[in-house]
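User: Teach me something about this protein's shape.
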Amino acid sequence: MIATRRAVLPAAAGLLGAGLVSPPIQEAFAEAPPSRPKKPIYDEPRSTLIQPTPKSPSTMSLDTNSTSETPTNTPTSRLAAEIRRARLSLYDYAVVTEDRMDRYLTKAFDLETSFTKTVGSLAPPKESDEKLMPGVIYVLVAAMAGSIVSRNRNILVRAAVPLAAAVGMSWLVVPITSRNVGDLLWRYEQRSPFISQNHLRIRGAAEEAWTTARQTGEKVASVADQTVLTGRSTVEEWVKKGK
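Assistant: First, the predicted structure itself:
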């Protein structure tokens, strides 16, 4: 009996030591264990924020002045200013060019309209029997004949004779067109008082000379008629006396 106890005691002591050394047995759950909150890797924000202290108006004005005086002459700002200046210059040049082009086109259109109206005003009216085509040919032929006649004369005669022949023929074959051309030239001459006054003076002298020449011609014709009648009567008397 004593031997049996001595054999059981060491075995019980060994089991008790093994139980103390081995880890405790954990319970097995059917569901996953509850998740534990993870600790954040960043620091949590402070719950209390520092409120800025209000500034007085004088302090704000000083801050504004210091901010406005802060230099902004950076390469980017200089490049932006140069681009802005170039764009404004290009825009101004484009506007000036467009305005000049508009003025030139307007002047050209006005000149074209004025030329068309002027040429149309020179033509004879439709109710008249005047024809321009044969009349212009006659005027050119008269001018060529005048230049041929005066080819051996001095330069003044060579310039005056064809012009006089053309003007005379134009008043003869196309009188309405000649009058319209004369009125147009007179309107242009009125823009220069010197030319218009000289024209009036020359025209008055020419009309006076023409009137004097016509009166002289009429007197000469009447004297010639009287002379012829006197001679005729004298001859008739001689013939009667001879019979």
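Now, about its shape. Residues 193-242 form the longest helix (50 residues). The CA atoms of residues 139 and 167 lie 8 Å apart. If you'd like, I can walk through any region in more detail.
User: That's plenty for now, thanks!
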